[in-house]
Design brief:
Largest sheet: 7 strands, mixed
Bound molecules: coenzyme A
CATH topology: Aminopeptidase
Order of helices and strands: HEHHEEEHEHEE
Shape: globular
CATH architecture: 3-Layer(aba) Sandwich
Number of domains: 1
Number of strands: 7
Strand order of the largest sheet: 1-2-3-4-5-7-6
């Protein structure tokens, strides 16, 4: 993975079909192409993609609202997992939130999603609550996690 691939880039309208396809492959409650198009119009949304050889293999979507950031989506394609791309995407979200002056980052994750739970824990997210029955497809509870931002670069987390 080159340095440019690892960092990724902001999504554009050209990425919409690939974003919707990746989402459909990764989530039981997929966002449509129109959902992603809407994210591109939101001034407070950060929609970021990672490519390998021109193929979109990862994405993250986060919002900055006031002094809080919220991670709404993060995914890497099945054949590209455990290669550090989820880590790179999450690091980008945290660095962006820190630069925007956020005090904390919040997210929800399915209680059975061991991969995501491990990724978030490695970056210092801690569980702060549980939303029973939050997910329908498949049925699951959501764990609410928070990472307090120290306003120092996150580069060494989980490395
Ligand atoms: C969660 C997800 C984004 C991780 O992406 P990834 O590209 O595999 O992440 P990385 O390779 O950077 O892994 C970083 C760390 O996360 C943890 N992790 C990732 N996958 C894991 C798994 N299957 N089991 C346990 N830990 C895992 C590990 O700590 C890993 O570090 P390591 O490889 O050095 O052990 C990916 O599994 C995914 O897209 N899942 C489907 C979508 C999803 O569930 N998103 C989260 C919604 S809340």
């Amino acid at each position: 993975m080159s340095a440019a691939d690892a960092v990724g880039r902001p999504a554009t309208a050209i990425d919409l079909p690939a974003l919707a396809a990746l989402d459909a492959a990764c989530f039981g409650n997929p966002w449509s192409l129109e959902d992603y198009r809407q994210e591109l119009t939101r001034s407070f949304a950060r929609l970021h993609v990672v490519e390998v050889a021109g193929v979109l293999v990862g994405m993250s979507c986060s919002w900055v609202v006031g002094d809080e950031a919220h991670l709404l989506r993060i995914a890497t394609s099945c054949g590209e997992r455990r290669r550090g791309r989820g880590r790179a995407l999450l690091r980008g979200v945290l660095d962006h939130a820190t630069a925007a002056g956020c005090q904390q980052v919040l997210l929800e994750v399915a209680s059975s999603n061991e991969a995501a739970l491990a990724l978030y824990a490695a970056f210092g997210f801690v569980p702060i609550g549980r939303r029973n029955g939050y997910y329908a497809h498949p049925p699951d509870d959501a764990i609410v996690m928070r990472r307090v931002l120290s306003h120092a670069p996150s580069a060494n987390h989980s490395d």
